[in-house]
Specification:
This protein is α/β, with parallel strands linked by helices and 513 residues long. It is built from 15 helices and 20 strands. Helix 3 runs antiparallel to helix 6, helix 4 runs parallel beside helix 5 and helix 9 packs across helix 10. The mean pLDDT is 95.
């Protein structure tokens, strides 16, 4: 921050290996001059970035990609120690972040050597075409403050920072303390490589106290985390009185839906089973996009329970350093307690039963006294219309609930859609079936309550990118309970960091733009 590395003056918060229980690092933000950090980022970092073209800033993103790629082995070791993730899960975070950064480097290069973006064509304002209106987008003259979640220490940083830096807006990132080590190391490597101007990329590790107080009218803030914290941000004077622009990604009880007309031996059924098991276990279910509710026709309830349970039973759990392990730990003891409490709440709801309990399986190279591990658990509820808890409670771990919808008449399809919408707005729903027309209808019917609808049919079985994988080309976010935010979506992400203005002038002036 403020162009130099500064150490907090307090004792710090210790981070522990969630499998071995050993202390790793300490995180502290005591005594930092936040006002100086924000001023330096705005005045020094912002001015230097805005002086560059999109192509020049894109080249910086590309250079950062090379630096990060050269340190991948170190990042993987940090993620294993700090987050308890197996190699494949670490790649989702580390490689996913680098891939997203590289994608925006390519998108930015195509924008060319310009410093602003046109917004549609010019339009005449009267009968004479000489005087027209041209809308343009220019980088906001402020700071982009990112307050990130613990589950994606790499991807959560770069999926926000890539479009912000490409737009010409300096970044201050506040990673979640529990997994701040990886975020800090990646930022340190890029900053120390001298790729971006001083003040373009800053990081504050530790308490978030005072960060929001530094926000001014043209700053923006992007938050990923709980709905309660999102409410605090939205009610802060910077937002209410100074109109600071806010993007929120909050809670989401995402769904997987098997359409009517499929049989237990159909390809669509198998695709659903495979994806549900994968989404429950990747990163131990600690993904905001993970499947939490699984909807199937009531006639397939038992078959789905058995098939998903059989797949989950094959998942080896334990120390991620052992190559035989396929699912590691939760990131901390606090998360362990939170998942246990949420699971208990779901189990206590009327009509909820346990369909698969993975806790009876032995852990590999992990001690139950120290390891923050929760085994995959598939719950079921035959009364989804009356049991509100299964639609309201999100357990941020390897937990999902199987829910049947009516399969006795022509209203079955609508009943299924109504149940999916009980999530009150979600990041993603995946739909499984074999009839293109019905799949298309389901996608459009769910589009108003989801940021993304992932449609999986047998013809794309080997091609689809996965229910929970967030691709930089597609929007990430969701309405309602999910926070109402939008990130990524290709160049759409740049809109958040630009200000739109209508320039009314002669065609000669507009041509000079």
């Amino acid at each position: 921050m403020a162009g130099r590395w500064i150490t907090g003056t307090g004792a710090g918060t210790p981070l522990f290996d969630p499998v071995l229980g050993t202390e790793l690092v300490r995180v502290d933000a005591t005594g930092l001059d936040l006002a100086e950090a924000f001023r330096f980022a705005r005045e020094e970092g912002g001015a230097a970035l805005r002086a560059l073209t999109y192509r020049q800033r894109a080249a910086m993103l590309g250079a950062a990609v090379k630096v990060l790629q050269s340190h991948r082995a170190e990042y993987n070791d940090i993620a294993t120690a700090n987050s308890g993730t197996v190699a494949n899960d670490t790649a989702v975070d580390v490689d996913g972040g680098i891939f997203t950064l590289g994608t925006y480097a390519k998108l930015g290069d195509a924008l060319g050597d310009v410093t602003h973006l046109p917004d549609d064509d010019a339009v005449r304002l009267g009968k004479d075409p000489l005087f027209q209106s041209q809308h343009v987008r220019v980088p906001t003259r402020g700071v982009a403050l990112f307050i990130n979640a613990f589950n994606f220490a790499s991807w959560g940083l770069w999926e926000k920072a890539a479009p912000a830096l490409l737009s010409g807006v300096p970044v201050i990132v506040k990673p979640a303390t529990a997994t701040a080590w990886l975020t800090q190391r990646m930022v340190q490597d890029v900053v120390d490589a001298g790729i971006f101007p001083a003040g373009a990329l800053s990081i504050v590790c530790g308490s978030s106290a005072g960060l929001l107080d530094q926000l001014q009218a043209f700053d923006v803030v992007s938050f990923t985390g709980s709905a309660d914290t999102a409410a605090v941000i939205r009610s802060h004077p910077a937002v209410v009185q100074r109109s600071v622009r806010v993007n929120i990604e909050a809670d989401s009880v995402n769904s997987a839906l098997l359409l009517p007309g499929e049989a237990a031996d159909s390809p669509a059924f198998d695709l659903l089973v495979k994806e549900v098991a994968r989404e429950m276990t990747v990163k131990s279910g600690q993904k905001c996009t993970a499947i939490r509710r699984v909807f199937v026709p009531e006639a397939l309830y038992e078959a789905a329970a058995q098939a998903i349970g059989t797949r989950l039973a094959k998942t080896t759990i334990g120390n991620p350093r052992n190559p035989a392990v396929r699912m590691g730990a939760l990131v901390s003891r606090a998360q362990l307690h939170a998942v246990q409490a949420g699971l208990a709440q779901l189990k206590a709801a009327d009509g909820v039963e346990v369909l698969h309990d993975g806790s009876t399986a032995a852990w590999v190279d992990a001690d139950a006294a120290t390891a923050c591990i929760v085994a995959p658990t598939l719950l079921g509820c035959r009364s989804p219309d009356t049991t509100a808890t299964v639609h309201d409670v999100e357990v941020f771990g390897p937990v999902a609930t199987l829910l049947p919808y009516r399969s006795t008449g022509p209203a079955d399809f609508e009943h299924a859609l109504q149940l999916v919408r009980r999530g009150q707005g979600s990041l993603v729903a995946s739909v499984y079936g074999s009839d293109p027309a019905t799949l298309a209808q389901a996608a459009l019917q769910l589009a108003d309550s989801h940021g993304r609808v992932h449609v999986i049919s047998p013809d794309v079985a080997a091609l689809h990118t996965g229910h929970g994988n967030v691709m930089p080309q597609s929007l990430h976010g969701g309405p309602g309970r999910a926070g109402g935010g939008e990130e990524l979506g290709g160049l759409r992400a740049l809109n958040f960091y630009h200000r739109r203005c209508a320039i009314q002038a002669s065609t000669a002036v507009l041509g000079a733009l």
